[in-house]
Write a structure and sequence with these properties.
InterPro entries: O-mannosyl-transferase_TMTC, TPR-like_helical_dom_sf, TPR_rpt. With about 650 residues, this protein is mainly alpha-helical. About 75% of the residues lie in helices and about 0% in strands. It contains 36 helices and no strands.
């Protein structure tokens, strides 16, 4: 009996303890302290979305407690919600939270809202706790950079790293600053160090992916984003970068799937709609692209890609005046943006503003590698302005010669006059403009000397090496130019570096290296029109006419049928396969686009002869080709054979 009573008493005690625990648990749930604890734990693990939900529940249960509001301010700042973070920080202060405890959250919120000066005031306050000092320094650096004080930002981050050398987030911030300053090599070093310090940090992996995209190519960057997303499937910034990279790599269906994931995480995400709009525009679905762009609203209006897409869609819709509204500010901010400048010139022309069209296109017309389309459009503008001589000169340039496969790419600013040389030989922006002006005015020797000084002062800046390569190539030293281009390509393997390097090695007679560079660029940028052009050229060189036609057809789908060089390439391929009828169609299209081009007249003549067309017309075309270029023996041979 005694033993039974003891067991009964023990059971009652255990039940009482359980009931007390249940009461306490329910009490914690009711007063919000449990939700607050879970929210803080989620913050510690870096799961900000889970933290936001838990803290929302805590705030509902204890709306007058300042701590949940202060924590939520930090979470919302991490998630990029500047307005929400600021509101929560202000609420926490109003409820009695010391301002020092919300300085970092408030500074981040203000910076997200574009108020760099106010963010500096918060982040540089004297009452910031020591534990928040490094985070505050990162905000100070970003605010200074936003105000154009890059040197001050760099000094701030370097000082923060002296305090916390193993802080991966500060390393990432340092890398982004180096990238903005044009020092790609230093940015790569900072990113690699950050990955070594925090190999499972989503923000660090995403930044390394962004750098890999420019350093090696689109395809090479994808594994970095995929690795980050295995750690956090709902990381919105990573999903944005991943989707954009997939889209640019030509993987439209995968990109759409990722944007849908992004919209599930952040309903109404502007970049998701923007990426879908770009994919629709590339797929020749302008109505769908407009509808998707409408969903973006005005949230990305300040970005170049948005303004360019708006301009393209307005032109597609026959609204050149609205296209001008979108494109004119973009060209003013980015004078070297060739597609935007060309499109703006066309919009002015279609709107009847021929003087503005001529002025807009003038820097591009002044280039040595001006494209035939630009020259023709500028000529039409001059004709409308009653300047027949200038128009005739531009048309003559447009007709001869055909555009090179991989000509050195310059900038529309190259047409500017070289003023006095910059005092600081290490200043990249000023010296690059000066070097390019020298090249256009025949000062290649001086340009090489200036470019060497610039590259020596900025060994991690790809643009400095590109300027040196351009200068050497102008002096017909292609092998040396290729070495300079290689230095640039090792840091940033983009269109400019790849095409220059391919061209330089080809000019130096090293076709093996030229093809290797071209193949690498094609593999990393399979949807790029420039990559497709290179792929077609390689296929023609191998006499692989089937591959050449498939590539050219893909390129025509991307760029349309108004490119005489493309039509000529298709005609050449058809001729090589013995398909004279198809060759005639493409050759005629090319000739009609550029009737003053001798090579195209000869090509159409050959297509006519092979397909059983008019021999009289073929002879007339060959006589025209020979009249345009009497020193080309091939045209004379073709004419004699036709006769």
């Amino acid at each position: 009996m005694r033993r039974s009573r003891l067991f009964l008493l023990a059971g009652l005690a255990a039940l009482l303890i359980a009931l007390v625990g249940l009461w306490q648990w329910r009490s914690h749930e009711r007063d919000g302290s449990a939700a607050l604890t879970r929210g803080l734990a989620a913050m510690e693990k870096g799961d900000m979305r889970a933290a936001r939900v838990e803290l929302m529940n805590a705030i509902k249960q204890m709306p007058r407690a300042p701590r949940p509001h202060a924590a939520q301010a930090l979470v919302l700042a991490e998630l990029g919600d500047g307005a929400g973070a600021r509101a929560e920080a202000e609420r926490a202060r109003a409820l009695g939270q010391p301002p020092a405890a919300t300085r970092v959250a408030m500074a981040e919120a203000l910076l997200l809202q574009g108020d760099a000066q106010a963010a500096l005031a918060e982040a540089q306050a004297t009452d910031i706790p020591p534990a928040d000092g490094v985070a505050a320094s990162r905000i100070v650096a970003r605010a200074l950079s936003a105000q154009g004080e890059a040197d001050g930002a760099l000094a701030t981050l370097q000082q923060a790293l002296e305090t916390a050398p193993d802080d991966a987030r500060t390393r990432v911030e340092l890398g982004r600053l180096h990238l903005a300053m044009g020092d790609q090599a230093a940015a790569i070093m900072a990113a690699d160090r950050a990955v070594a310090l925090a190999p499972d940090d989503v923000r660090t992996l995403t930044f390394r992916g962004e750098l890999t995209r420019s350093q090696y190519g689109l395809v090479a960057a994808l594994p970095w984003f995929e690795r980050a997303l295995t750690i956090d499937r709902s990381a919105a910034p990573t999903l944005e970068q991943y989707a954009a990279t997939l889209a640019d790599a030509g993987r439209a269906s995968q990109a759409i799937a990722v944007t849908r994931r992004l919209l599930a995480v952040e309903p109404g995400n502007a970049r998701a709609w923007m990426i879908q709009a770009v994919i629709a525009a590339r797929g020749d679905e302008p109505d769908l692209a407009r509808a998707l762009l409408d969903r973006v609203g005005g949230r990305l209006n300040g970005e170049p890609a948005t303004r360019l897409l708006r301009g393209i869609l307005q032109m597609e819709g026959g609204n050149p005046l609205l296209a001008i509204e979108a494109l004119a500010p973009l060209v003013a901010e980015q004078p070297g943006n060739r597609p935007a400048r060309t499109l703006l010139g066309r919009a002015y022309y279609l709107a009847g503003d021929f003087a503005s069209a001529a002025t807009t296109l003038a820097p591009m017309v002044a280039l040595r590698d001006a494209e035939p389309y630009v020259l023709t459009l500028a000529a039409r503008a001059q004709e409308a302005l009653d300047d027949a001589d200038m128009a005739a000169d531009m048309l003559a340039r447009a007709q001869w010669p055909l555009r090179a496969d991989a000509a050195v790419i310059a900038s529309p600013d190259d047409g500017m006059t070289a003023a006095s040389p910059p005092v600081d030989t290490g200043s990249a922006q000023a010296n690059i403009l000066y070097i390019r002006a020298l090249l256009n005015q025949g000062g290649a020797g001086e340009a090489v000397g200036r470019a060497r000084l610039l590259a020596r002062a900025n060994p991690g800046a790809p643009d400095a090496w590109l300027a040196l390569g351009d200068s050497l190539l102008t002096l017909e030293r292609p092998a040396e130019a290729a070495r300079a281009y290689e230095a640039a390509a090792n840091m940033r393997f983009d269109r400019a570096a790849a095409l220059r390097l391919t061209s330089a090695w080809a000019m130096a007679g090293d076709t093996g290296r030229a093809e290797a560079v071209a193949r690498l660029f094609i593999a990393q940028n399979p949807a790029s029109p420039d990559a497709l052009r290179l792929a077609a050229a390689l296929a023609v060189r191998r006499k692989d006419w089937g591959a050449a036609e498939r590539t050219l057809a893909a390129l025509i789908r991307r760029t349309g049928t108004n490119d005489a060089a493309l039509m000529a390439d298709m005609a050449q391929s058809a001729l090589a396969k013995g398909e004279g009828g198809r060759a005639r169609v493409y050759a005629r299209a090319a000739y009609r686009l550029m009737p003053g081009n001798a090579a195209l007249a000869d090509l159409w003549a050959q297509a006519l002869l092979q397909s059983g067309g008019s021999r009289v017309e073929a002879r007339d075309l060959l006589e025209k080709a020979l009249a345009i270029q009497p020193d080309v023996s091939l045209y004379r041979e073709h004419l004699e054979k036709a006769r």
